[in-house]
Amino acid sequence: MTKYVYLFEEGNKDMKEILGGKGANLAEMANLGVPVPPGFTITTEACRFFSEHKGKYPEGMIEAVKKCLAKIEKKVGKKFGDKKDPLLFSVRSGAAVSMPGMMDTVLNLGLTDETTEALAAKTGNVRFAYDAYRRFLQMFGDVVVGLKHHDFEKALQDVKDSKGVKTDVELDADDLKEVVKKYKKIYEKAGKSFPQDPFEQLMMGTNAVFSSWSNPRAVAYRKLNHIKGLIGTAVNAQVMVFGNMGDTSGTGVAFTRDPSTGENKFYGEYLINAQGEDVVAGIRTPKPISRLEKQMPEQYKELVKIYKKLEHHYKDIQDIEFTIQEGKLFMLQTRTGKRTAEAAVRIAMEMLDEKLINEKTAILRVAPEQLDQLLHKQLDPKAKESAALLGKGLPASPGAAVGEVVFTANRAVEMKNAGEKVILVRTETSPEDIMGMDAAQGIFTSRGGMTSHAAVVARGMGKCCVAGCGDAIINEKEKSLKIAGKQFKEGDFITLDGTTGELFEGKLATVDPELSGNFAKLMKFADKYRKLKIRTNADTPKDATKAIEFGAEGIGLCRTEHMFFEGERIKAVREMILADSLEMRKKAIDKLLPYQKQDFKGLFEVMGSKPVTIRLLDPPLHEFLPHEEKEQKEIAKDMGVTFETIKQKMSELHELNPMLGHRGCRLGITYPEISEMQTRAIIQAALEVKKEKKLDVKPEIMVPLVGTVGELENQAKVIRRIADEEIEKSGDKLKYMVGTMIEVPRAAVTAEEIGKVAEFFSFGTNDLTQMGCGFSRDDAGSFLTEYVEKGIYDKDPFQVLDQKGIGKLIELAVEGGKKARPDIKLGICGEHGGEPSSVEFCHRIGLSYVSCSPFRVPIAKLAAAQAVLKEK
Amino acid sequence: MTKYVYLFEEGNKDMKEILGGKGANLAEMANLGVPVPPGFTITTEACRFFSEHKGKYPEGMIEAVKKCLAKIEKKVGKKFGDKKDPLLFSVRSGAAVSMPGMMDTVLNLGLTDETTEALAAKTGNVRFAYDAYRRFLQMFGDVVVGLKHHDFEKALQDVKDSKGVKTDVELDADDLKEVVKKYKKIYEKAGKSFPQDPFEQLMMGTNAVFSSWSNPRAVAYRKLNHIKGLIGTAVNAQVMVFGNMGDTSGTGVAFTRDPSTGENKFYGEYLINAQGEDVVAGIRTPKPISRLEKQMPEQYKELVKIYKKLEHHYKDIQDIEFTIQEGKLFMLQTRTGKRTAEAAVRIAMEMLDEKLINEKTAILRVAPEQLDQLLHKQLDPKAKESAALLGKGLPASPGAAVGEVVFTANRAVEMKNAGEKVILVRTETSPEDIMGMDAAQGIFTSRGGMTSHAAVVARGMGKCCVAGCGDAIINEKEKSLKIAGKQFKEGDFITLDGTTGELFEGKLATVDPELSGNFAKLMKFADKYRKLKIRTNADTPKDATKAIEFGAEGIGLCRTEHMFFEGERIKAVREMILADSLEMRKKAIDKLLPYQKQDFKGLFEVMGSKPVTIRLLDPPLHEFLPHEEKEQKEIAKDMGVTFETIKQKMSELHELNPMLGHRGCRLGITYPEISEMQTRAIIQAALEVKKEKKLDVKPEIMVPLVGTVGELENQAKVIRRIADEEIEKSGDKLKYMVGTMIEVPRAAVTAEEIGKVAEFFSFGTNDLTQMGCGFSRDDAGSFLTEYVEKGIYDKDPFQVLDQKGIGKLIELAVEGGKKARPDIKLGICGEHGGEPSSVEFCHRIGLSYVSCSPFRVPIAKLAAAQAVLKEK
User: Fold this and answer.
1) A94-122: per-residue pLDDT in tens?
2) Hey, is the C-beta of A624 within 8 angstroms of any chain B C-beta?
3) The complex's ipTM?
4) Contact between chains at A776 and B669 (C-beta distance less than 8 A)
């Protein structure tokens, strides 16, 4: 027969599935010899039975509870419901994973009219007894019986009012008896009776915990936090201990190390003559744990011995709760402590030094995603406390930024050149704004989501960005930002926290990241274990340098279109687009060649012999044309054509679904001269850098948006012709590769054909997600949030690779590619390349590398190492 | 050693691959004992060698040619280059597939200064000999040596001018000698010499044929017509016979049956004293072949015997060429005759009756695509001859339409109700125009391709449409159509030919289709063999009735959104979209319920016990809002909201990529009340029709745009809840199915999961192609044509299912679906459901049915039958 009830000493920490986290840890402590008030746990399996059988208990459960009670009574020498020395219990829920939303705690269970009198007599403290009773009546009424919290508050207030006092403490024993009377009336009025049988109280409490597993808040929490596969919550009944029995009693919470810095010192707070809830409620100010040493030296010494024992036993930082009842120390909880990124890294590295854990465990101890916090400038937490919060948008790209408001990209560049620090404020950004974004300290937009242009580009640049702050009213023409009833003009200072999405008024202090020490050590261990290579997405020597600093081993994606926007060249680009004939187009393209060559030389010089994957022009041409009439008129003037001609061309280039339009390799196929120029620039640059700097340059030319092998054949032919021509002309030698993005679903399922032509595949998971799932990043906002909330997708597939669907397409492509070319190089260069669970997936399916923005390189490294370790 | 040269008698009709079509048929005729002038064929393999070895011949080829020549000389008793009785040859190209663009014909090869004299002497006809010589000089100079055709024309004109005559016939022998002199000078001037060695002439002619295989026109033709896998052209050298040697000579072309009607009678024309080219050139008017019986009874009798023999031998209609030289009949060519759809059906059915072919062959004899011609009203071919052609657009939907020009949908409806026949003329159409399109005889647009809204909807309606006629300037505001220098106003008559894409001025006569007789017989045979069920895409009882007439076995796709546009209901739809609260939305939706129910009742009544698949609302909501300010203002007034509110809502609903936006099941998930209303309407309608008409109604409710099983689960739950509720309320029973479109690539690769929830899959190949290939139908125009021209895609994947890529996704989905649910119903409902090669694919991969527009049902049936027959 299934065992549904466990005494603490019958369990252990590995039984979380059936005892819940709290129960398992109480059991573990009990077995470790740590002083834990005795108790028992009713299992999650009983909860499942209860849920599935309309509130019935499994056979034998009641009897088992009774048996446990009897054993505990014998142990502590008190009896539940005893009229002289009654035993009291706390009842708490506890699932395998910590989960708010369920019924939390009922204290003092076992008090009745009779046992309260007994407690008063036994402790000699009538006030204490009736205070405990009225608290129990209220908690039980509220969470078990379902009476209104407000009614209890009001009754208490009435008694205080009639006595003319302000706080509970001022009420004496008689007042509290009066409160108890009033509380009982609340039960009566609602047609409920308060059970005077302690066992009935216990089972009602159990029912309430079990039922709360299925309450809407708990269900919503599980959905939102992707908690799946749990069968229910356990119920922990534990003998009450009181920290509020005078000056030899007290209660506290503590961490075995500093959870904020990771420093190896005892960290926490306590209150004398108080119950646990008082520490949390914040009515009285707790004292730092170190003071306890003076106040209760003996108990402190014991506590230190216990916390060390626990940390040593669990081999990780512990978050503990304790109560001291009349000089006797009891542990009420221990669990793994939550910690900041800084602390996580320090604790892992120091525990390794202390030989508490081994290398592999140390690597697995830091959540890769957390590292992001360490790589960016952050707001000084102290400065934030007193700052004026103006509003909140999406935390689109982490870090902090302080600067003067500017409303246009051009102005951002001007002011930056004049030595100012600026924040670019726009309704939304477009590719035209790239230079301004680069010049700015941070970007703030009122529209767009986590994958809007502003967000994606800012993350790529490692630049702080708060996006989609709907409360902000931005008028770019009038150069005004209105938010929180205030108006900001150009030159006014604001501060962004991209890690939280907050916008503050004025200049806030910031703190710089620290990449040496423990961080560097962790990275070294990650490098030791990982198998995936980590490349970066970088379009400029600046980005590339940053990425190498972070340990990038190559460029996985250089987007050449970003180079098209800078300075004079955008003019030539526009000439190219607006050209009426092949000849005019070629003329414009020829102007671009020297620029592009310089760009590539810069990259090659930084990257040395590391491979550099360069993607040929990808976006639809209309993205390069100006959207505002004023600028359109300027272009017309520059090019000597009429404004009408420009308008006409704009309308010709307009597309209903630009994402699925004339872009990617389709441009190179209809305008081969663009691919020719880009190839020439790449190969000339590579040859020159090779010669001038004696570097073994490794260009990899990548064709975007291939859906069918014919497209790649067409472009590969152009690329190879031009490349071979340039190499021959130079008299030198150069190895280069030609490959393709796999980002169109059709390419994934016909990868075997494509692999015969491509020397490498790079998975463009952004577009593959868009086309594979059939939703556009720009438009999915209207339903994707709801989808994730409803659990239709586990996570936003633009942030976390959808392994089941899009991953399946990738697996098909890997299989096809390897069949065609066993040594094919396989990488990923979408936003997912720096997302830990996606990196793990890439490792598992056998990719050669992942490529991500410079600031995510360390994250990817750690995730790649963890992927290897998790495999074993 | 490979044999590179075949005497005609050494080959047969099955050797097309190496002898070409012409050569193989000449060989077949020679062996049948039909009088064919002797000759030989140089194989396509020699051509391949020639192409691959820079113009060299394979070893032994020259010798083989010489041997053949010798044998022929011996046979006919004349010698090539003989100075008394010279043998002359024609040289013609001929690949396995008939192919314009290559060098065609050189006649009279073997004539030199000397042999011309000999020919004159032998025939006693100096004029004849020199006329032959000058023709040869010109043809050889033009097509073999590469001299300018114009120079020869000018020289001939000069002689005519100096003699003061107008036609060639007026030139005598001396004049022609003068022409010959001038022609030779043209060679000299260009630095070329005319070879006086007949064998050299022959080899130069051979080179010219071989080289022409690779000329740009021929290459382009092969690409355009998807001719692949051929290795080259053959060269046919055949002893010359002359139809221009006086009144006992002649030449003609004929068909063994009437290629236009299919009637079993000898059909053709001939000319006395003429060469083949004269019949084609149209200088003299040829006589009907029946007249030959009187003019040359003996030869006619022989010709009839031969044509019957050939038809009986080939068991198909033959297209033959003959020449009579001085009373002796020679056959120069036979090949399978091209025929109209009408003829194809009649010939197949009559040959079956004649026991010439069996049922299977008869079914395979008609190209399914051709049937389209038979199902629609057509322009009377005679009326077209004298009609004023205004311009040409795309043949977007076949048939003919005559009517008055109207420029708006509303006006089309008004005029139709007033009893007029109208043609809707618009720049492009949108869903708002549906009612107007339905009211019109035909649709004419100046923009949009074969899969534009106008084209797709018109084909669905079986309505004539000419789309994308770029020459037309349409101003809807001013109600004016300008084309070919003319202006048309509302009420002016025009005529469309949707089969050719032509637009004519005025009213042209039309002829009605005939669906009984041979057509009905063919359909019966198709039904006997096919395994696929054929359903139709129909949204109205009218369409459904039409489809049943054509033999549809169910509805595979009823698009409910079309129902949303009619009359009053569009108001309620707009109210629903513009609603601010769930309550307002529900109120608007409730107004739609009775309409929808009526719609479905109509369909169920027509379809009886045939299954009806109804797709829930699919398009993005903004499609239902009016695009013009005037109408927007009206709505605002109707709804009692400000124009600004409407504008605001429009901008909120605007999407950058609507194809990948908030549509399909995403609507039903964010607004479950829409799915609820639609389900209620379907089930109530089904229950009522079942009860009222005692029909075994079979509704199949289809969820669109599912990408992940979660979406389907969500919607299936709503549907089943409402459906079961309605059924229970009725007290009756009703079987219904819940399934999904598979049109998102992710759905295809996760079909096993989805199949656990879906009772059927219907492949939406339009969207699957868009997302799978990553191009939008609306925008692909800018590159897709070029893609097909360059062979990157074989065919436009929106017209012909891309079996390799999109087909692969479908195969994966079929596999997954069957794994999850072995008896899953599988169908296709995209535009491809009526395209023959796609239908064959659907059969091959094991679908249960295809669904297509009513007018394509017969095509799909025939294609499905052929798919079975081809399999064996």
Assistant:
1) 999 887 777 778 999 999 999 999 999 99
2) no
3) 0.84
4) no
β-strands B318-325, A611-615 pairing: unpaired
The tens digit of pLDDT for each residue in B285-310 reads: 788 999 999 999 999 999 999 999 99
Report the range out of A271-285, A508-522, B299-313 with the highest average pLDDT.
B299-313
Q: Which residues of A touch B750 (CB under 8 A)?
A: 804-805, 808
User: Minimal Cα distance from B668: which residue of A?
Assistant: A783
- Report the gap between the CA of B812 and the closest CA in chain A (Å): 10
Rounded average pLDDT over A536-552: 94
Contact A714 B802 (CB under 8 A): no
Region A728-740: mean pLDDT is 97
d(CA A597, CA A600): 5
By the CB < 8 Å criterion, does B669 face chain A? yes
Place of tokens 């799915």: B675
With H, G, I as helix, E, B as strand and everything else as coil, classify residue B786.
helix
CA angle B861, B619, B776 (to 5 degrees): 75
- Which of B792, B796, B803, B812 to substitute to test the interface with A, most A CBs within 10 Å? B792
Chains A, B: CB pairs < 8 Å = 180
* Partner-chain residue, chosen from B710, B787, B809, that has the shortest CB–CB distance to A745: B809
Rounded to 10°, the helix B517-529/B857-871 angle is 50
Give Rg (Cα) of chain A. 33
Read off the tokens for B768: 């699957």
Tell me A339's DSSP state: -
Radius of gyration (C-alpha) of chain B in whole angstroms: 33
Instruction: Report the C-alpha gap between A666 and A655 in whole angstroms.
Output: 14
- Kindly list the distances between the CA atom of residue A212 and the CA atoms of A93, A151, B342, B353, in Å, as whole numbers in the listed order: 9, 22, 75, 81
**The pLDDT of residue B451:** 65
Give the strand pairing for B464-467 and B394-397: antiparallel
- Tell me whether residues B660 and A770 touch, CB distance under 8 A: yes
**Active-site entry in A829, A832, A843, A852:** A829
- The one-letter amino acid code at B819 reads K
Cβ neighbours, 10 Å, residue A108: 26
Q: Which two tokens stand for residue B254?
A: 């004929």
> CA-to-CA distance for B26 and B46, rounded, in angstroms?
19
Distance from CA of A742 to the nearest CA of B (A): 12
User: Distance between CA atoms of B660 and B775, rounded to whole angstroms?
Assistant: 11
pTM of the model: 0.84
Q: In whole angstroms, what is the distance from residue A168 CA to residue A176 CA?
A: 9
Angle at the Cα of B597 (from B596 to B600), degrees rounded to 5?
85
Q: Which of A23-37, A631-645, B781-795 has the highest mean pLDDT?
A: A23-37
Question: Is it the case that residue B283 has pLDDT exceeding 70?
Answer: no
- Side chain identity at residue B221, one-letter code: Y
Q: What letter does residue B710 receive in the DSSP assignment?
A: H
Long-range contacts formed by A283-292: CB under 8 A, 24+ apart: A286/A252, A289/A252, A289/A254, A290/A266, A292/A250, A292/A252
Q: Which member of A670, A705, A745 has the closest CB to residue B771?
A: A745
Residue with tokens 């990529």, as numbered in its chain: B657
| A744 closest CB neighbour out of B660, B773, B791 | B773
Of A710, A744, A772, the CB nearest to B793: A710
Residue B769 host element (H or E): helix B765-773
In angstroms, rounded to a whole number, what is the distance separating the alpha carbons of residues A222 and A225? 5
Over residues A418-441, mean pLDDT = 90
Q: How far is A527 from chain B (nearest CA, A)?
A: 35
Q: What is the mean pLDDT of residues A699-711?
A: 97
Q: Locate tokens 């308060």: which residue? A: A194
Residue B759 main-chain phi, psi, to 5 deg: -85, -20
- In angstroms, the CA A675 to CA A560 distance is 11
Tell whether B618 lies on the interface with A, counting CB pairs under 8 A.
no
